[in-house]
Write a structure and sequence with these properties.
- The protein has helices at residues 6-12, 52-59, 94-107, 114-123, and strands spanning 17-23, 29-35, 37-38, 43-48, 62-68, 75-84, 126-139.
- The protein is of the alpha+beta class.
- It has a single domain, classed as Roll (Pnp Oxidase, Chain A), CATH 2.30.110.
- Strands 2-1-5-6-7-4-3 form a 7-stranded antiparallel beta sheet.
- A hairpin with a 5-residue loop joins strand 1 and strand 2 (29-35).
- Helix 3 packs across helix 4.
Amino acid sequence: MGDLTDEARAWLTGRTRAVLITTRADGSPQSSNVLTAFDGTSFRVSVTADRAKTRNLARDPRAVVHMVGDDFWSYASVSCEARLGAVTTTPGDDAGRALLDTYQAITGETHSDPDEFFAAMVSERRLVLTLVPTGVVGSGW
């Protein structure tokens, strides 16, 4: 497992589709397709409090973010340490604003109705998952 080089950081930046791999209580892997924003230092993902991936990471913060390149044979499999943010409970609270920032970083767009967004995030019990890389393997970058 190598360090996250400048070349790997550049390759990861701007890619938003990934597979998040966590560990179930029985030790088996659990995978989820996610949208993510990578800022050169960490990945951010919007997750719900009640999903398996969130429960898995609360128990064991080790994760892998796996990204496939445009030609399928280029990829990066990034080992990470997960940090779960607070669940948004009041529209527009700090957790909700972090979710809006994450949405905008992933889509590259400003949300047309932030109040609607904040209400939906509270209703869905969402939070920001931050994944800090600890190593990477890959090919083609």
